[in-house]
């Protein structure tokens, strides 16, 4: 622990024990902190101290450990879902403290509803399904045709990170989703509440949720606002590799031709691609940034590849995204899209939302075997700068569909920006670029 972190931690401990109760619910465990979270909590701690008697101005945080214990107290012992940045501290706590048998990170959010249903059928018990509200769409079918009271009536608690909450600053792809989230739950007939950011409130809300789930045998949802949880960090060990995703993106992009088309996946990758074009003083017209719609970049790329047979299409994908909608690979493999080139940047984790393991973390997992089994014509792995450069050259020279798996380490640069052009500007520039024959 660095000196500044130790100092903060001591401040936090002191304040947590402060009889004036100026700040509440700070950690009873010993989480590690990253500097941005650290400085935000430090700033908040300072403000809380300044509030003096105005305790109504105090900002609380929910300790992931306390919330986990409160869940166990209402009988929840099984946890599954897809990670979200607003839930990353809770996810990190789970990854570090829960055994694998009781905690499964699923490929997509619909799978998690299925898993929770199977768990209920086998045990009669309720589980927790966590997700970002972007993944609500993936849950709709199993919620309405499996878990609903009108069908198999299966209780489960949904913990939903509320990106794009009205009144909060967020990216374009989260705005509509954030706005429609409560209405969507209403339409689905799912009762919900906002998760309080202090343990007494959270415990009460969990008790009401339990009462509802017991009485109606149906799902109940908790909406989680940003910065509800106290920071908790745990790092999933992955192989020591030299290149980051940003390094790899730069090498790939610099190896492409002037007319080559790029479709990039959700998360940090598209942000790094955008910044690299800025640094190179290039326009952004060659890139379609799949800022939302996680897992669909390869299908978008296929749609373009089939219509533009004289152009080369490079889909820059992530392991979590490919796994989320892996069925797309089966369809791609069964086409004759010779110009479809899939580059999977595999860091074995959901790096963009906190670094939780994907199935690619498993010892017996292989993207090359999967691609081959789905009918891709060829595949290769690259881990170094030279291998990536040669790999892209090779992809350009062969007939697809083909795949290049690029093995990278987790992590991203601090202060990474966000695209400054809007999705509509991106679309217009890109369509214009596609129109060159
Ligand atoms: C349907 C849906 N579920 C969850 C998310 C939240 N999310 C954004 S990026 C991301 C991780 C992507 O992981 P991966 O493809 O492996 O790329 P990496 O971040 O590791 O580069 C997640 C889970 C989302 N945007 N959409």
How do the SSEs run, as a string of H and E?
Answer: HHHEHEHEHEHEHEHEHEHEHHEEEHEHEH
Ions, cofactors and other ligands present here are:
thiamine diphosphate
Distance between the termini: 57 Å
What is the residue-mean pLDDT, rounded to a whole number? 91
Layout of secondary structure:
Blueprint: H1 3-16, H2 35-50, H3 64-73, E1 79-81, H4 88-97, E2 103-105, H5 109-123, E3 128-132, H6 136-147, E4 157-161, H7 172-187, E5 191-194, H8 199-216, E6 220-224, H9 245-254, E7 261-264, H10 268-279, E8 287-289, H11 297-307, E9 313-318, H12 319-324, H13 327-333, E10 340-346, E11 349-350, E12 356-357, H14 367-374, E13 378-382, H15 385-397, E14 402-407, H16 423-434
Parallel strand pairs: 1-2, 1-3, 3-4, 4-6, 5-6, 7-8, 7-9, 9-10, 10-14, 13-14
Antiparallel strand pairs: 11-12
The protein binds thiamine diphosphate (TPP).
What does this structure look like?
- This protein has 437 residues and is α/β, with parallel strands linked by helices.
- It has three domains: 3-57, no CATH class; 64-224, Rossmann fold, CATH 3.40.50; 245-434, Rossmann fold, CATH 3.40.50.
- Helix content is 43%, strand content 14%.
- It has helices at 3-16, 35-50, 64-73, 88-97, 109-123, 136-147, 172-187, 199-216, 245-254, 268-279, 297-307, 319-324, 327-333, 367-374, 385-397, 423-434, and strands at residues 79-81, 103-105, 128-132, 157-161, 191-194, 220-224, 261-264, 287-289, 313-318, 340-346, 349-350, 356-357, 378-382, 402-407.
- It has a six-stranded parallel beta sheet, with helices on both faces.
- Helix 15 links the parallel strand 13 and strand 14 (402-407).
- Helix 1 runs parallel beside helix 2, helix 3 packs across helix 4 (88-97) and helix 3 runs parallel beside helix 8.
- It is globular.
- Thiamine diphosphate is lined by residues 82-84, 132, 134-135, 138, 245, 265-269, 294, 318-321, 347, 349-353, 358.
- Thiamine diphosphate (TPP) binds at residues 82-84, 132, 134-135, 138, 245, 265-269, 294, 318-321, 347, 349-353, 358.
């Amino acid at each position: 622990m660095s000196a500044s972190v130790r100092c903060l931690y001591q401040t936090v401990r002191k304040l947590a024990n402060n009889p004036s109760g100026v700040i509440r619910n700070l950690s009873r465990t010993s989480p590690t902190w990253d500097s941005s979270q650290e400085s935000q909590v430090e700033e908040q701690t300072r403000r809380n101290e300044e509030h003096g008697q105005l305790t109504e101005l105090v900002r609380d945080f929910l300790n992931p450990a306390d919330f986990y214990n409160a869940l166990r107290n209402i009988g929840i012992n099984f946890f599954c879902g897809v990670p979200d940045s607003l839930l990353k501290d809770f996810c990190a706590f789970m990854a570090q403290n829960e055994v694998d048998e009781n905690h499964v990170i699923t490929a997509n959010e619909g799978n998690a509803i299925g898993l929770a249903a199977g768990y209920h059928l086998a045990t009669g018990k309720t589980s927790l399904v966590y997700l970002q509200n972007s993944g609500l769409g993936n849950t709709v079918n199993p919620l309405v045709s499996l878990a609903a009271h009108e069908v198999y009536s299966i209780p489960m608690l949904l913990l939903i990170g509320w990106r794009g909450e009205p009144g909060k600053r967020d990216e374009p792809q989260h705005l509509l989703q954030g706005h429609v989230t409560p209405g969507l739950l209403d339409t689905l007939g799912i009762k919900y509440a906002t998760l309080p950011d202090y343990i007494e409130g959270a415990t009460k809300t969990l008790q009401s949720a339990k009462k509802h789930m017991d009485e109606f045998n149906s799902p109940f949802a908790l909406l989680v606002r940003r910065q509800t949880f106290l920071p908790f960090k745990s790092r999933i060990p992955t192989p020591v590799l030299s290149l980051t995703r940003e390094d790899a993106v730069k090498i790939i992009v610099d190896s492409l031709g002037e007319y080559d088309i790029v479709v990039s996946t959700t998360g940090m990758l598209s942000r790094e691609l955008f910044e690299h074009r800025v640094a190179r003083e290039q326009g952004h017209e060659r890139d379609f940034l799949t800022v939302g719609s996680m897992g669909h970049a390869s299908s978008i790329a296929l749609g373009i590849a089939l219509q533009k047979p004289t152009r080369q299409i490079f889909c820059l994908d992530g392991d979590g995204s490919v796994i989320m909608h892996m069925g797309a690979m089966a369809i791609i493999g069964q086409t004759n899209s010779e110009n479809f080139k899939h580059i999977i940047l595999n860091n074995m984790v959901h790096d963009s939302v906190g670094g939780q393991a994907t199935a690619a973390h498993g010892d017996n997992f292989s993207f090359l075997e999967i691609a081959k089994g789905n009918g891709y014509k060829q595949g290769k792995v690259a881990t170094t700068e030279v291998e990536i450069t040669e790999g892209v050259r090779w992809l350009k020279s062969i007939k697809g569909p083909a795949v290049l798996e690029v093995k990278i380490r987790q992590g991203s640069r601090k202060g990474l920006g966000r695209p400054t052009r809007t999705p509509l500007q991106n679309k217009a520039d890109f369509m214009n670029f596609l129109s060159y024959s």
